[in-house]
Amino acid sequence: MSRKEEKRKQREKMIEENGLIYLDGVSKVYSAGAPALNGVTLHINRGEFVFIVGDSGSGKSTLIKLLLRELVPSAGKVWVMGHDVARLPHRKIPKFRRNLGIVFQDFRLLKDRNVYENVAFAQRIIEVPPKEIRRNVPSILATVGLAGKYKAKPRQLSGGEQQRVALARALVNNPAILLADEPTGNLDPKNSWEIMNLLEEINEAGTTVVVVTHNREIVNDMRKRVITMKKGVIVSDEEEGEYIDED
Ligand code: ADP
Ligand code: MG
Questions:
Q1: Domains located in the chain, CATH noted
Q2: I need a labelling partner for 230 at 20 to 30 A (CA). Which of 4, 149, 178, 182 fits?
C-alpha cells in the first residue's frame, strides 16, 4: 500500500469510529478572560443534521471557526473528515476547505458581481474548467430557486434571495459538510423557513449539515439533533431535540 493510500485508510477509520466531525476535549481561550470553549467533546456522523443553539457568547461561532481552521484550539483536538485540523500544513488548507461549505448571517456576497458571478467565483478559485462551471452554476441556482436571477446584483435582491445565493455558492463545489452560522438571523419567518427547508433537502441528498441558530420555532418544529451550549460547554445534546429555554 502506498503511503497516501495508507493515510486515506487511517482517515476513513477515524471517521468510522468517531464521526465526520470530532472534537476531543476542545478548549479555546482568546485572551485573559473566560474560555470561549471549555473541554468540548462532540461527535457528528456523516449525513447528520445538527442544530447548535445557546445564548449569545456561548461559543457557537468559535466552534464553527475551529472546524474551518480559522482558529486552532488552545487544548484538545479537532478532527474534520479524519484530519487533525490543527496539524494540517498551510499548503493543504485550501484543499481541505473545499469540503466545507459555509453560510453566514450577513450573506457576505461580492456586491459588485451578479448572482451568477458570485457562485461561479467559488468554482474559479479552485480552477474548475469553464465548461463545467457553465453546467454547475445554473444547476445549483435552480436547486436554490434562483433560476431566473442570474444577472441581478446583490442589492437588487431580497434578504432571502441573497441568502440563497450564498447557499448556492457554499454548495457549488459539492462539499461534504455544510456549516451555517445563524443563516436566518436577518430573514423574516417565511424566508427563514425556506432556507431551513433547503438545508434539509441538501442534507437529505447526503451532505452533513450543522446549523447555528436562535430560531426556536424552527428548531422545535424540525425535530433534529439539538446541541445546546452555555458558557463554552455543551449542556445538552438530544436527538429529535427542542430549543431549551435560557434560565
Ligand atoms: P456565540 O457565537 O455563541 O455568540 P462566540 O463563539 O462568538 O459565541 O464567542 C464566545 C466567547 O468568546 C464570547 O465571550 C466572545 O466575547 C469571545 N470571543 C469571540 N471571538 C473573540 C475574539 N476574536 N477575541 C476575543 N474574544 C472573543
Ligand atoms: Mg456567533
A1: 47-70+94-238 (3.40.50.300)
A2: 178
